[in-house]
Design brief:
- The protein is of the alpha/beta class and 440 residues long.
- Strand 1 and strand 2 form a beta hairpin.
- The radius of gyration is 22 Å and the shape is globular.
- Bound molecules: zinc ion (ZN).
- The site of zinc ion has 5 residues, from loops.
Length: 440
Amino acid sequence: MTRFCKLFFTGTVFLLLMSFSAFPQDAATTAKIKYHTEKVKNYLDKNNALLPYYAINTDGISIYASAQNKLKNIPEFHLNWDQVAAFNVFLKTSNSATALEVYRSGKFVGTFSTSKNSPSTMVNQIFIPETKLLKGYKIAIDAGHTAGDMETGGIEQKCLKFNCDSLKGLKSPIAISEGMLTFATATLLKKKLEAEGAEVFMTRKFDGGSAFGVPFETWLKKKHIDSLFAAGVITSKQKNILLNPKTSKRDKFRFVFKDLELQKRAEIINNFHPDLTIIIHYNVDETNTGWTKPANKNFNMTFVGGAFMKNDLSSPEKRFEFLRLLVSEDLERSIALSSAMVKSFEKNLNVKTATYSDAKYLIQGCLSTNEIGVYCRNLQLTRYVHGPLVYGETLYQDNINECVLLNKECDKTKNERVQQVAESYFQGILNYTKEKMELR
Ligand SMILES: [Zn+2]
């Protein structure tokens, strides 16, 4: 049995425990408490600092807005154990805004029949065997960043410019913008998935486009900003930053656009209700600061949700996502998907999988899972995107060999290395879905 199978069965056995009332109540409740408490410890609470915000006991799961509220026993939201299965069905079938509204109301009034619509049944309904391998799947692809050129790559600080370096053996200058690589990868992957019958949604529709449907430069125009303010999308403070001629485009991007755009990505992905979400990034060596010269490291890794830190439960929205990750199977499935993906990266790209000590941010900001190369990390997208996801970070763009390969071809869909990356995502998805079929 593979590690993924074990993980999947742990979750499934847990759901079965919840479904059969014949199971002795005390033992079943003890199992539920143990399962969820360990899940928080292993995946969700990076620095063991979240206890003031939740309680897991015989009554069920409670979430608190503050430590004081926990002391006074005033939960922000409470779920009884016998509501968990129905709550999971509700999460799968409702949109994010409705789910958040229910969370804000403080309690869940389950109206779903768990015998007919248990999460396992819902998931199995999606994976219908067909001649095409991915028929019936809805897959969202998020091509990381927005730049379609080097200038915007500079504004979002996601580009590399290397001069020739005789010492390192770099014969030609390098100019790579990560947003162009991710978009080309997404485009190639979309074609492959659609050829196998999947319905694919891309958060960015064209090279240089953003989740708002326009490039950053267009989004920045005064008329557009005025309409965003009128619609309540941005605050007056944000509007002033965006319209201030003294503020650099880089700061406008960094302090306003970036977070709003990531929020938009999560919103449109969740509205699509995908079975899987593939978030595509290319990595760099974090110790090669400035990224003005090539380096030698090269790794693949993947991220899933979790690893919340002390100040990461500061709003009802964030606490709701913490609860969702705790009670649903989103995290377990994301880990399984990411594990299949990182194995495919290593095999198809011939680049090693990063272990916990291979990057500082893995130690400082992540929790390891049982799967090599899969790390819990509380990124905006791993937190807000619902359902199984993989946040892929393939190879290091600033690696001396990779930068030469990635620099080839203006049209990055014609770049051989990018094509290999797209193929490795495709193979990873096929392997994950195949393992799921075998488990049925
Ligand atoms: Zn990136």
